[in-house]
Amino acid sequence: MKTVAVVGTQWGDEGKGKIVDLLAEHADVVVRFQGGNNAAHTLVVDGEKFVLRLVPAGALHPGKTCVIGNGTVVNPFGLIEEIDGLKRRSRLRDDALLKLSYDAHIVMPYHLAIDRAREARLGKAAIGTTGFGIGPAYEDKMSRMGLRFADLLDFKDFTVRLKRNIAEKNLYLKAVLKAKPIDGKALVEAMKKARTRLMRYLCDTGVFLDGAIAQGKRVLFEGAHGTMLDIDHGTYPYVTSSSCIASAVFAGSGIGPGSLDGVLGISKAYTTRVGAGPFPSEIVGSLADAVREEGVEFGSATGRPRRIGWFDAVLARHAARVNGLWGLAITKLDVLSGIDPLKICVAYEIKGRRYDSMPPGRGALARAKPIFEEMPGWMDDLSAARSMDDLPTNVRRYLERISALTRVKLAMAGVGASRDAAIVIENPFLA
Ligand code: IMP
Ligand code: MG
Hints:
alpha/beta
């Protein structure tokens, strides 16, 4: 396969960053197509830890082109900070290797202010957003008042539009949300500076990708968040404001469905979620604490402790369907070492009725009781395993059961945080 998408099958934080980093070695171009800096991919390369928010993971390999597609929403100040941080660590040295779509929407400080003020007002009913203004930025995109990077080409016209937006947002912030208004003058000045920094990266990324694909280049599409956070197919309203599934590749990068060869779904060997919302296979108490510690399950974007649960095959089947998965990568198997028995949620029960797929209706998932299957655990340290043969029988059985329950073949397995701590059964670029 020449063009491959990597998507999360759970609530984000499946370890996509590590798999993308691993596959980036075989790719020429790595593309972000949705979301913003609410995403955070943690990567460990040669013992060095990197957290990437907007820049695709290709940036950690020399010579790869990184594309931020039109479907994303980009905080210009966050992006500059991230670029500077990478440059300080001798990455992303060549500016020609980062391409930012003219049509990506700009996340403005008023989006952050609205996001945070709304969440504060909701109190207990809050979504638990990352607070990075992602929802309000996508709202403006849909309501057609959003500002895009292409608008920076004519800065005079941009300023008129920006001031109009600030005036409206400040009214809303003050009168409705009882929050502090934005300093419009300072924002115009800040945008002028950001423009000078970011103009060099602007590109018609759809045309660029089309050319790369026509030349037979290998392109990797890097999904952010996860299927259960998808605006349509996730646990609405406890979702993010973008489409996170494989079909978002097309609208979000400007190529057509015929140009994508396959989709690799990433799933943790267990489940986590940050923020509020239903979580049928959730574990509470000391076992959850132990997994959180062992798996370092704290949000890379916000530092919040992640909620922990057993592997949920209902979610995985849902993800397999909506993403049309070619294969699965199961990450963080090493974290389950020492837990015996293990449980897999195979279906849900609501009022005596069994559901093998998502139960319909608001609140249904919150009422769903997990139906578990038990599997024997393992005690072994898995971190040195590099092939299926290196894995204890019970690990292989666990993986085979997941593959059977989801009807998706196993392509990779993760056994540790570092770049090489993985088992590659079938590399999609070599398939
Ligand atoms: P927002 O994307 O900041 O609007 O947050 C909406 C929901 O998505 C919240 O529950 C967040 O915790 C969750 N979320 C957004 N991005 C990520 C991610 O990259 N990993 C995990 N959860 C995320
Ligand atoms: Mg993350």
